[in-house]
Amino acid sequence: MLRRSLALLSAQQPAIVGLKVLKGRKYLQATFKDAAEPSVLSAEYLRAYTTSAEALGHSATDKKKWPSGKSAVTIDKLWQVGNYAVTIGFSDGHSSGIYSWPHLHDLARNKYKFMRAYIVALREEKKSRHPVVVNRGYKESIMSKVSEKIRKKSA
């Protein structure tokens, strides 16, 4: 009975034909047997829809935590998880989400709808897709002027 259940379960899952990292590690190409052409998914999109417990919330009262500032994130590594999923290592250090074939298939089929939902959610939270950039030269020059003034006052 168990063997028959497992066979039915695997027959219902979308068959993945291949995964390939593209264009400077910014995109993942997923090819499914039932699709006319491969789907190209951005690293930012995949990072936003991670299945990690941290992102999904740990309890019933926690809501999904949308990662902000991830437009520049890249794919560092892929690890196959058995015959049913892949784990993606991202340039921001995140690598705890497991992307099952059905989850990847769903992300591929709904990428425009889901990406729009992600952007709307970030706007509602007053967050940005883009990383915060600090002009270190400006900050350092101000800090050196402040330090110089403090030294002059104490001398």
Structure description:
The chain is an alpha+beta fold and 155 residues long. 41% of the residues lie in helices and 21% in strands. The chain has six helices and six strands, in the order αβββααβββααα. It has helices at 2-12, 43-48, 53-56, 101-109, 111-124, 136-154; strands at residues 16-22, 27-32, 39-42, 75-81, 85-90, 98-100. The strands form two sheets. Strands 1-2-3 form a three-stranded antiparallel β-sheet. It has a three-stranded antiparallel β-sheet with strand order 4-5-6. The longest helix is centred in the last third of the chain and has 19 residues, at 136-154. It starts with a helix and ends with a helix.
In short:
By secondary structure, this protein is α+β, with helices and mostly antiparallel strands. The chain has 6 helices and 6 strands; from the N terminus they run αβββααβββααα.
